[in-house]
Design a protein that fits this description.
Blueprint (H helix, E strand, L loop, with lengths): L1 H6 L5 E6 L5 E10 L7 E7 L1 H23 L3 E5 L5 E4 L1 H7 L17 H17 L3 E8 L6 E12 L5 E10 L1 H23 L2 E7 L4 E4 L1 H7 L9 H7 L2 H14 L4 E11 L6 E12 L5 E10 L1 H34 L5 H24 L5 E2 H10 L19 E4 L4 E2 L1 H20 L9 E9 L4 E9 L13 H14 L2 E7 L2 E9 H4 L6 H12 L1
Parallel strand pairs: 15-17
Antiparallel strand pairs: 1-2, 2-3, 4-5, 4-8, 6-7, 7-8, 9-10, 9-13, 11-12, 12-13, 14-16, 17-18, 18-20, 19-20
Helix pairs in contact: 9-10, 10-11, 10-12, 11-12, 12-13
């Protein structure tokens, strides 16, 4: 007060008043001289109790905030109205490698990935201007190792007591592992989808509580149903082949109480998009709730049409092979029984040759998966067995014309015709080597075949020339002649005609096309047939 009286001014000051009840009251004193009244001072007294309590509460609140913020695993930050950082918690300071005293000068934008900076700065600028919150993900460089990490930022504006904008407060969360796991999951799902489509596999799920089905895109394609079409049990059963529908319905009913793997089921469907018949194999498993009740069924469906067809072909092949093996054994048995046994060496040689002829036919059939085999290789194989060098059609430029001529269109013979004609050709070739054209140096054999379209016959002509002159038919019919007639007539329903002309034997064989030729008569065969008939 003396200072006021002497100088006419004094700064406000704080003191404590002592009340009569002994309590203390913090006060703020403001004093000034009274104009025109020398030696007089006016003094204002402000009770600071409420303000001191508010300041103490604020200090306590800030202490609690800093305690929580500094120990929080997430990254907390505050910025001023210009976007500069004014607070980073310990987690964020460690991430960016910033000391507490360096926060005001820290440039957080310099840690952004170059590909993310433009988009993020634009977003933050709009939020600062509009005084609104924002959420964004971007890549930031970590100080410890220089690696970029994906941080998800969520921020809200801060306002003062008077509504003035103070800046932003936000939190950053490292979601790198989460995003990498999501990317790996998407990649895995894409690989699974591609594998399912490549393998003709569709995935499905049935919620037993809601009765709703969920199908993958590949499953929709498998059934020929437009993607997104609501799936119901009635729709599924309507596309199941009528012959399999009740069996499928019963299997679904039997699976209702099952928990765990459900017996697999195969059935035919008539695809909705084009009506094509496809075989489907379904595998499923029922998932139970905590009480052990089945609540959800998941499964896959796979197109096994080709597998079914392969199994049918395999079964057919096995039946055909069994039939051919029994037939071959019967032929071998007949050859052994009917071959003359006067000379053991001759007997053994004859039986060996006939069995070898059957083996050659079976080899060609096996190469054709028992669906048939070409006639030309059969003829060449049977004749090659009796010629020097092993090639019936070899041409020696320094010698006479080839001893064997083979001429005819490309034809595929049925298995039964292959076996019968191999035996017939073997007997004709054996006879030619022993007694006919191939027994003499200048002898020749010409084998020609063609299709007689008018008569629906496959005709084969065996013609010998240059061998020992023939005076007529032999005095007795040998085993070879009986084999030729029996195989052609009995196995193929054909005919055999032999003529013993002076130049050599001519044997003409005719068998029904339906019994002998695979695939009928094509245009090329018909053209060749006309040429052969003209010759």
């Amino acid at each position: 007060m003396r200072e006021i009286l002497e100088t006419g001014r004094a700064d406000p000051f704080e003191k404590e008043f002592l009340r009569k009840d002994g309590s203390r009251v913090p006060v703020r004193l403001t004093a000034a001289p009274l104009p025109g009244l020398p030696g007089r001072v006016v003094m204002g007294v402000e009770d600071l109790t409420a303000r001191r309590a508010a300041e103490a509460a604020l200090r306590e609140s800030e202490a609690r905030f800093r305690l929580v913020a500094e120990s929080a695993p997430v990254m907390l930050w505050m910025s001023d109205r210009d976007g500069k950082c004014i607070y980073l918690n310990r987690a964020l300071r460690e991430f960016w490698g910033v000391a507490p005293e360096a926060i005001p000068e820290f440039d957080w934008g310099a840690t952004l990935h170059p590909e993310d900076s433009a988009e993020l700065f634009a977003l933050v600028a709009r939020a600062m201007q509009d005084r609104t919150g924002f959420a964004v993900e971007a890549r930031y460089r970590r100080a410890a190792d220089g690696a970029y990490r994906i941080l998800r930022t969520e921020a809200q504006p801060r306002f003062g007591a008077g509504g003035e904008f103070l800046g932003m407060i936000g939190v950053n969360v490292d979601v790198t592992e989460t995003r990498q796991a999501e990317a790996a999951l998407r990649a895995s799902e894409e690989r699974l989808r591609m594998a399912q489509e490549a393998g003709g596999i569709g995935a499905w799920e049935f919620d037993r509580r809601t009765g709703r089905w969920h199908w993958s895109e590949s499953n929709y394609r498998l059934w020929g149903i437009e993607s997104g079409t609501p799936v119901t049990l009635d729709l599924i059963l309507s596309l199941v082949h009528p012959e399999d529908r009740e069996r499928a319905r019963a299997a679904i009913a039997d699976a209702a109480p099952v928990v765990g793997p459900i017996p697999e089921l195969d059935f035919r469907i008539l695809r909705r998009s084009d009506g094509a018949m496809r075989w489907i194999l379904s595998r499923a498993e029922a998932i139970a709730d905590e009480r052990g009740r089945p609540v959800r069924t998941i499964g896959i469906m796979r197109d096994v049409t080709e597998q079914k067809a392969s199994e049918e072909r395999q079964a057919l092949l096995m039946r055909e092979l069994d039939h051919r093996a029994k037939n071959a054994l019967a032929v071998v048995q007949a050859a052994v029984r009917l071959t003359p046994k006067d000379d053991p060496e001759t007997f053994a040689h004859a039986v060996e040759g006939r069995v070898a002829a059957l083996a050659r036919a079976h080899t060609l059939l096996a190469e054709g998966r028992w669906q048939g085999a070409a006639l030309r290789p059969l003829i060449e194989a049977e004749l090659a067995a009796f010629l020097p060098g092993g090639n019936a059609c070899a041409v020696d430029a320094a010698a006479a014309p080839p001893r064997v001529e083979v001429e005819g269109p490309d034809l595929a013979l049925a298995p039964v015709a292959m076996q019968a004609l191999s035996m017939a050709l073997h007997e004709l070739a054996t006879n030619a080597v022993k007694y006919g054209a191939l027994s003499a140096p200048g002898g020749r054999v010409r084998v020609a075949w063609w299709v007689d379209r008018a008569a629906r016959l496959l005709r084969l002509r065996w013609e010998e020339a240059g061998g020992p002159p023939l005076a007529g038919p032999p005095a007795r019919r040998g085993f070879g002649s009986r084999v030729v007639e029996a195989t052609v007539r009995d196995q193929l329903g054909g005919q055999v005609e032999r003529r013993w002309e002076p130049a050599g034997l001519v044997c003409e064989i005719a068998v029904p096309v339906e019994r002998a030729v695979v695939g009928g008569i094509g245009p090329a065969q018909g053209a060749a047939a006309g040429a052969a008939a003209a010759d």
